[in-house]
C-alpha cells in the first residue's frame, strides 16, 4: 500500500530539525520501502505491506523519537485518501502571488465536519470546504490579513492538524503516482 506521512512541526523556525536523508533511513529501518521525501517540512511517501494504516503513526512516531529524540506527530494518508483530496481541490486553486490555498490535514480526533464550527470563517473572504480527513481553505492574497485563517494559529484545533499548501499537496500526489508506477 502507498502512503504519505505528514509530520507536524519539523524544521520550522530552527526547531525540531530533522535531516530528510536521515529521516528516510529511519523509515527504512522500520520496514518502509520506496521511501521518498519532499522538501524539509516532513512529507514522506512510502510503501508498506506489514502494518495497518492505524498502526503506522505509532510505529513512525516511536522510530522518530528513538532516532532523533523528538516527539513528532505523524498523520498518515493512503494513496486512495490522497486521490480524494486531489479530486476535491478546485483546479483554479493555487498558492501564488494572487491566491493562498491550503489543505489542513486533520488528526482522527477532530476529523468530522463539525470541526468547521470551531473555525473563524469569513464567508465573504474565505472559501472553506470539509472533506474526509482534511479542510480545504482558500483566500485571495489581498485578503489574507482579513481572513479567518489568521485566527487559526494558536487555537485548540490548530494543534490537531498539519497544513500543506496546495502546490505541495499536488506534488506529494505526483510522488505517490510515481511510486505506484514502480
Automatic annotation (TrEMBL):
| Name the record gives this protein | DUF1697 domain-containing protein
InterPro entries referenced in this protein's UniProt entry, alphabetically: DUF1697
Source superkingdom: Bacteria
Cite the source lineage: Bacteria, Bacillati, Bacillota, Bacilli, Bacillales
Amino acid at each position: 500500500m502507498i502512503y504519505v506521512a505528514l509530520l507536524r512541526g519539523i524544521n520550522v523556525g530552527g526547531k525540531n530539525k530533522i535531516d530528510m536523508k536521515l529521516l528516510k533511513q529511519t523509515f527504512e529501518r522500520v520496514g518502509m520501502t520506496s521511501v521518498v521525501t519532499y522538501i524539509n517540512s516532513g512529507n514522506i511517501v512510502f510503501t508498506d505491506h506489514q502494518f495497518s494504516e492505524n498502526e503506522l503513526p505509532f510505529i513512525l512516531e516511536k522510530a522518530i523519537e528513538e532516532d532523533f529524540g523528538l516527539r513528532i506527530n505523524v498523520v498518515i494518508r493512503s494513496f486512495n485518501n490522497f486521490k480524494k483530496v486531489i479530486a476535491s481541490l478546485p483546479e483554479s486553486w493555487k498558492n501564488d502571488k494572487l491566491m493562498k490555498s491550503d489543505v489542513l490535514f486533520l488528526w482522527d480526533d477532530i476529523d468530522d465536519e463539525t470541526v468547521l464550527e470551531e473555525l473563524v470563517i469569513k464567508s465573504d473572504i474565505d472559501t472553506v470546504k470539509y472533506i474526509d480527513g482534511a479542510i480545504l481553505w482558500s483566500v485571495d492574497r489581498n485578503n489574507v490579513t482579513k481572513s479567518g485563517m489568521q485566527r487559526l494559529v494558536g487555537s485548540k484545533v490548530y494543534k490537531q492538524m498539519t497544513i500543506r499548501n496546495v502546490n505541495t499537496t499536488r506534488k506529494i500526489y505526483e510522488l505517490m503516482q510515481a511510486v505506484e508506477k514502480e
